[in-house]
Amino acid sequence: MSLPITIATRESRLALWQAEYVKTLLEQRGHAVTLLGMTTRGDQILDRTLSKVGGKGLFVKELETALEEGRADIAVHSLKDVPMDLPEGFDLACVMAREDPRDAWVSAGCATLADLPQGAVIGTSSLRRTVLLRSALSRMQRPDVRIEPLRGNLDTRLRKLDEGQYAGIVLAAAGLKRLGLGDRIRHIFSTDEMLPAAGQGALGIEIRAGRADLVGALVPLADQATWLAVAAERAVSRAMGGSCSMPLAAHATLDGARLYLRAAWGDPEGDARLVRAEGQADVADQAAAAALGERVAADLRAGGAH
């Protein structure tokens, strides 16, 4: 059954790419799709870090309002921006196949962290990246390097780098690759070097609860392996307090029926030590994946994470 579907999307270049991508896939399946571009509070507040103004949920609230008012049918999100618990009346109806989940180092003059000059400044908007970078720099004995906030959409962040405000910045590899900016990447951090955020690289599609017609239309777009992995990752974050702006990393990979999950937590105000935990289990559904995430979160707390 073909449906008329309106997609609510942020108006950044990356968000529009993601919405257009979903639009194309739905149109290939016979649906009539239009876009509703919107500016969110997260796009408007650029002078403070996300952790101080309400977290990444600021990027989805206006889109949810459009769904609630019937102006849109679905919202396409970078899954790492989606709060761990959706408001009542909303469902995560689809998780799509993941792009590269890793973090990327972007710099004009430094091929890696090891090349940073004395007193260099690194830019990132993420508490997770901040604590992971602090740990790496501590191991390298580089107390001279400063980590400073970097807000704005992808193009804005790259412009600030190009203006010389930072020696290097850390961004999600997925966004750069999706926009054809892979040549800006100097180094992709392995997951051992920088453990990704829960859901990083994956797209999630949100709907109003009870829209069985949309659930059916989105089934062909879903990727079950990604969905199981992110269910475990998001369960770690939910069990640790649910905030997208927590200094927490969680990354899972599926090998056959076996799901492997690693997590790390750091204190942005304390020392550079990371608390790490990992686990594995055979999983057949999202509930089993989430249970693995809860066990790993318990291990993090036992190690001192809070």
Description of the molecule:
The protein has 306 residues and is α/β, with parallel strands linked by helices. The protein is 33% helix and 25% strand. It is built from ten helices and 13 strands. It has helices spanning 13-28, 41-44, 50-53, 61-68, 127-139, 154-162, 173-178, 212-218, 224-239, 286-302, and strands at 4-10, 32-38, 74-78, 90-95, 103-106, 121-124, 146-149, 168-172, 187-188, 203-208, 248-255, 258-266, 274-282. The strands form three sheets. A five-stranded mixed sheet has the order 2-1-3-10-4, with helices on both faces. Helix 9 (224-239) packs parallel to helix 10.
Question: What are the SSEs and their pairings?
Answer:
Blueprint: E1 4-10, H1 13-28, E2 32-38, H2 41-44, H3 50-53, H4 61-68, E3 74-78, E4 90-95, E5 103-106, E6 121-124, H5 127-139, E7 146-149, H6 154-162, E8 168-172, H7 173-178, E9 187-188, E10 203-208, H8 212-218, H9 224-239, E11 248-255, E12 258-266, E13 274-282, H10 286-302
Parallel strand pairs: 1-2, 1-3, 6-7, 6-8
Antiparallel strand pairs: 3-10, 4-10, 5-8, 5-9, 11-12, 12-13
Helix pairs in contact: 9-10
Provide a brief overview of the structure.
With 306 residues, this protein is α/β, with parallel strands linked by helices. It has helices at 13-28, 41-44, 50-53, 61-68, 127-139, 154-162, 173-178, 212-218, 224-239, 286-302; strands spanning 4-10, 32-38, 74-78, 90-95, 103-106, 121-124, 146-149, 168-172, 187-188, 203-208, 248-255, 258-266, 274-282.
